[in-house]
Amino acid sequence: MKSRYNTILRSMAALMAAFAITACGNKQDPVPDTTPTVAEPLCDSVCLYRPGDYGSTNWRIPALLCLDDGTLLAVNDKRKYNETDLPEDIDVVYRLSRDKGYTWTEPQTMIEGRGRGKGYGDPALVQCANGDVICAFAGHNGYFQSTAANPICIFYCRSTDRGQTWSDTVNITEVAWDANSNYHASFIASGNGLRLKRGEHAGRILFAASLLRNGENVSDNYILYSDDNGQTWQRSQMAFRGGDESKLIELVDGRVLISVRRSGARGWNTSDDGGETWGQQGVWNEITVNACNGDMLRLDDTTLIHSVPNSMQRENVSLYVSNDEGLSWHSPRLLTAGPSTYSSLTMLPDGTIGCYVERGTNGHMELWYYRFNRAWLEKRP
C-alpha cells in the first residue's frame, strides 16, 4: 500500500512539473523539466521583462544575487517612459525565485521615481555577513548633469528578510565626493558588489564607484567599503585612472581584483589590503571589447569567469574563463547571440550559474535569466 502511495505521489509531482508555469513579462511559458546529470550540458533561459510589460516602456540594468538561503534576487531599472538614464523618471524593482529561477514572484517596487530628476537606477547588490542584503543605486540628477548644487546621489536600501521587504533610502554621496574634492559626480557600478571572505578584512563589503573629474568628461574608479555591514562607509584611494563601471572579485590569496569597463582592452588592477590602496593598473588585451558593464564570478579555487560582450559592438555576451586568477582569459563561450549588453552573475547552491542579461537593441531591450552548468560552459559548440 505504501509503495503504491509513493508511486501515486511521484506521478502527481511529474504531472505538476509538466504543467508548471513561469512568468515571462505578462506571458506564461512552460517550465522545462530539466534534471540533468553532472555530465550533461544545461543552459535554460527565462524572459523576465519585455518592453510594455507591467506598464513600462523599457527595462534595463540587471543585478542578480543568490542569497544564503538559496533565494534568487533579481533587481533592475523600470524605465517607465523611455530608455534613457537618469535624470529620467525610473523605479528600482525586484523579483524573487525560490526554485532556481524557473518561477518568479511578481515585480515589487523597492524605490519609486517621482518624476524627472527624482528617479533612481543602476542597482548593485551585496549580502552582508549578518545576512542583511544591501542594494546600492544612483538617484536624482544625471551623471553628466551633476553639480555640487544639484548632484547625482548614491543611495542604498537594506533588507533584513532576504529581499522580501526594504528599508527607506540612505544617502552616502558625501563618502564618494563633496564640493571640496576634485570630482562633481559619482555612481556605483550596477550588478554586484563584493563581500570579502578571506584574511583580516573578512566580512568587509565593497562597491566599485565611478567619479567624474571636475572640468573633464573622464571618470576614475574608487571603492566604497564598509566593515560594519553597511552602517558606515569609507572611500579607498584611486583604483583605476580613466575607468568606468567596474567589478570586483576576491582572489584565493586574499587580494582584490578589479575589472574596468573601457573601450578596447579591458582594464584591471589589484589591492592587497582589502581594496583600500591599489597597485599599478594594466589591461587585458585578450578581452578587447565594447565599453560595457559585465561581471566576474568565482567557480572554484582555480576558475574565474567574466561575462562581457565578445565584440566591439554591444552584442554576443560571452563568458571568458581564467585559470590563473585573472592574469589571463581565454575560451569565450557565447551565451546569447546578437544584440546584448549588461550582465550579472551568481552561483546557485547546486553549483549551477545564474546570469541576468540584457538582450536586444535600444528601445527594445529585454531582460533574460539564464542558468547553466560547468558541462555547458566547458563544451565547445
Structure write-up:
The chain has 381 residues and is mainly β. It has two domains: 1-33; 40-378, Neuraminidase, CATH 2.120.10.10. Helices cover 7% and strands 47% of the residues. Strand 23 and strand 24 (303-309) form a beta hairpin. The chain is globular, with a radius of gyration of 20 Å. The N and C termini lie far apart (49 Å). The model is unreliable at 1-31 (pLDDT under 50).
Q: Output the CATH class name of the largest domain.
A: Mainly Beta
CATH topology of the largest domain: Neuraminidase
Count of folded domains: 2
Helix share bin: under 10%
- Unreliable spans: 1-31
Task: Explain briefly what this protein structure is.
The chain has 3 helices and 28 strands. The chain is mainly β.
Task: Record keyword descriptors for this entry.
381 residues, mainly beta, Neuraminidase, seven-stranded antiparallel beta sheet
